[in-house]
Amino acid sequence: MSKAAGKASAVRVIAKSVLVEAVRRKEIYVIILLCCALIGVVMTLDFFGLDGLVKFYREVALKLMGVSTAIAVVLLATRQLPREFEFRTIYPLLARPVGRLTFLIGKGLGVCAAAAFCFGLFMILYVAGILSLGGDLAWGLFVQHIYLQMLLMMLLTSACFLLSLLFNYDAALVMGLLLYSASGILSSTSLFLYDLTTDIGRLLLIALNYLLPQLVLFDLSEKVLHSELWGPVSSATLATLTVYALAYTLVFTGISYRLFRRRPL
Amino acid sequence: MKSHIFWPFWLIGILVAGILGHRVNPMAYTGGRSRDDEERLRRNSSAIATMLGEFRTSMSDIMFIKTERYLHAGVGYVPHMAESVMTAEQLSEEVDEHQSELGIPDDDHHHDHHDHHPHDPDLEGFELDHDHAGTPTLIPAAERDFRGFIGRLHREVKPWRDPEKAHIHTDGRELLPWFRMMTLTDPNYVRGFVAGGFWLQTEGEDLAIDFINEGLRLNPDAFQLYVSRGFLTIRQYRRLNEADEADKARDRLQAAHADFSRGAELALLERPEQINEDGTGPGGWTTYHEGDAMAAVNMHVVTTRLLGDVEASVRLARIYLEHFPDFVPLQNALNYE
């Protein structure tokens, strides 16, 4: 077996073990069940006895599903490395001919696979809900939304790995959740502050704009919600967003790798 | 400790939640909008009640903004539905625009600023509102956005439209769940009942009046709700009148008259003595309150005259002019003398 094939095999084994662990631990199911219970309540709401009001369901469902998947990703990703150190399971793994970068990539892909599993289940439920309510689905936009959400989960995974190497597990978890939840607020706040602040403040805002990943760019849910008017985004935009997500993921993974490599075992 | 030991606690928790859930009555809440100092003091004596109250009013405000977003097909504008267009009369006109778009015959309004047949094929079936063109969008246009390519991507992935262009207006039907939710969240959110009632009339006036009645049960002193119901009833009167159903039309006119009368009475009780030039006043009196108060007194005079009592209508106009000396419709009402 060539060296590259050996690494690919190792990545696959590590990723699979993360996915299996995520599925076995039942956290994903609990998140899905809680989310479904909330969405179920929304679906039973009676709005003046009128039929065909699907936007409210769409909005609540897409938001809850996106947030729930992100929470699952942050939980899983921030836990991966600290747990390996805590339970000393990293030693037998690294004693084999598995490089630390291979190990990180495998872990990252495993978390992304778990996110895809979770979001995939959600999307099946979402489509079933829309169809049962008699609503239409703009498939082009919908598929693009799923793709962008997967890019978001990949970016979030790499950011959480970095956080878990910089801080302890609890702090990384909180920082990961804050990064996800505050990204949109930071984006709109910076727009508001830019006109009010000094030149130094503006420089700081511009720097923040490029230093922090703008997670809000990976959310097409508002267009999906109002799909009667908005069509799919252009392929150029999708390509730019893909490069944008990959760039941050590579940078975060690169820094994580450096930190991980320096870490004494 | 084994996990199965916890199962009884789970079951008890679910049972208690079920019982408590069954007893929850969102409408039992007495909200935070009263201007009665004594009432406010009583309510504020409980910190938890205050916190929940503020939370609920904030939630209902957020939901109200959401309806504006839905109306504009997701495009986020800096809130521009100023309080003046949230008066019952303005809302009635706003809904007329949409009814006309939906093919429902309009009463007697002409709307030069609304283009129901836009030339852009992508906007076929949508109404264009030129009145608010120029209102800034929350995601700024390229020339005002410092974020470079990130700003461009943001405008691509979110519903966005050049702020200089006319606003797209969607069918208001999908707004209705938010009005239901905001009035459940905060049963004292009078503005939610008024606006929801007017949008609901596109589904049937009886449905709308039922909703306003629900608001009145919960807020019996809210004069805006009487004005709102009065306008809805006047629409029924107009339609019946055109259909030559005189008895039913007169019945509706009397009902509207009673509502405007009560609305005017409550409005004058609530209206502060000192009113600023822009219609605002102490105690949270807004241009929205002032607009509805003016609509109430004017429609009270008009319906009194329509019912045939011209003398009484002139007398009422004189009384109301003491409160609104510059209000032209009231001045004109004196000409019927």
Main beta sheet of chain B: strand number and arrangement? 3 strands, antiparallel
**Side-by-side strand order of the widest sheet of chain B:** 1-2-3
Q: Tell me the helix content of chain A.
A: over 70%
Q: Report the count of strand segments of chain A.
A: 0
Mean pLDDT of chain A: 91
Number of domains of chain B: 2
Structural class call of chain A reads mainly alpha
**Overall pLDDT score of chain B:** 80
Report the total helices of chain B. 13
Count of helix runs of chain A: 10
Round the Cα radius of gyration of chain B to an integer and report it: 23 Å
Structure summary:
Chain A has 265 residues and is mainly alpha-helical. Chain A has ten helices and no strands. Chain A has one domain.
Task: Please explain how this structure is put together.
The complex is a heterodimer of chains A (265) and B (337). In chain A, 80% of the residues lie in helices and 0% in strands. By secondary structure, chain A is an all-alpha fold. Chain B is an all-alpha fold. Chain B folds into two domains: 61-203, no CATH class; 221-336, Serine Threonine Protein Phosphatase 5, Tetratricopeptide repeat (Alpha Horseshoe), CATH 1.25.40. Helix content of chain B is 57%, strand content 2%. In chain B, strands 1-2-3 form a three-stranded antiparallel beta sheet, covered by helices on one side. The A-B interface holds A 45, 47-50, 53-56, 148, 187-188, 190-191, 194, 202, 205-206, 209-210, 214, 216-220, 222-223, 225-226, 228-230, 233-234, 237, 240-241, 244 and B 70, 73-74, 122-123, 126, 138-140, 145-147, 149-150, 153-154, 156-159, 168, 170, 173-174, 176-178, 180-181, 200, 203, 207, 211.
